[in-house]
Amino acid sequence: MSIVFCIPPSEVANFTRLYQSSAIRPNMKIIYYVQNDPNLYPVNYLRNLAIKQVNTTHFYLSDMDVWPSCPSKCTSTHS
Questions:
Q1: Which residue, 43, 39, 37, is CA-closest to 4?
Q2: Among positive and negative, which fits the CA dihedral 9, 14, 40, 63?
Q3: pLDDT digits (tens, 9 = 90+) for 16-50
Q4: Nearest partner of 2 among 65, 43, 44, 54, judged by Cα
Q5: Rounded-to-5 percentages of helix, strand, coil across the chain
Q6: Could you count the other beta carbons within 10 Å of the beta carbon of residue 45?
Q7: Are 4 and 51 in contact (CB under 8 A)?
Q8: From CA 10, how far away is CA 14, in angstroms rounded?
């Protein structure tokens, strides 16, 4: 499994601390990309980073890059 997180610079230390204290399986590749511009979200770049970590001839791609914001999520779950 290959996972790429897109995080702001202010969260790098927290991410590193959580990663180092987690029991990650050896076949899981978890990396992060520092997002310096909050107005940009490099979907294709993040996907390609994850694909580069794959060590097999086949892979299944599941993009989890679109999350509802809290107001729309709250509105849609309480209507």
A1: 43
A2: positive
A3: 999 999 888 888 889 999 999 888 888 889 889 98
A4: 54
A5: 40, 15, 45
A6: 13
A7: no
A8: 8
